[in-house]
Amino acid sequence: MDRSLEGSVASNVLGEDFEDCIFGGSSEEVFSKLWDNLLSKHGLGSSVWLKDLYLSRKKWALPYLNSSFCATMMTKQWAESMDNLFKIHFYRKLPLPKFIAQYFKALTQLREKELIEDYESRQTKPALLVDIPVLAEAAESYTRRIYVDFEYEYKSQLACLYELTAMNGTIYTFSLSSSKVHWDC
Known about the structure:
Blueprint: H1 6-9, H2 12-24, H3 28-41, H4 48-55, H5 75-89, H6 96-123, H7 133-141, H8 144-158, E1 160-168, E2 171-178
Helix pairs in contact: 2-3, 7-8
């Protein structure tokens, strides 16, 4: 971290503004405006570290990740997950060298956990609700966790009720409703 950030890091306002910048920008233009405001408000325009961070924004800023698939983790879930990770692995007055070492240790643990889940998901297949091609393909293609979500949505579609409401020649109009069935299997 460069020297221009030292006084600002302790500022809670900077943290709030940074969070607004990350989560508040609904488009690339809004994100850029929020970023520029952050730098000017806190006098951080000369920060080399923040300039480098901005150059890699397409890898971490939400408006640039719209075309990325992040399974079922929502922004709030991700933030809470990261907050929990930081509470477990870091403490407030951790010196920078130890922070970096802890960061890489935490990152390694997360990657190992993900690799184990991927391995287990690929080695065993979930029990299918019924043996039909769409579920078999989903079980083959998705991780277990994503398959469970897929299967739930599939079962929800099976629980839809439909009623013929109008006929006009060869055009049939149906009304769809959910039966409010709760699936526990």
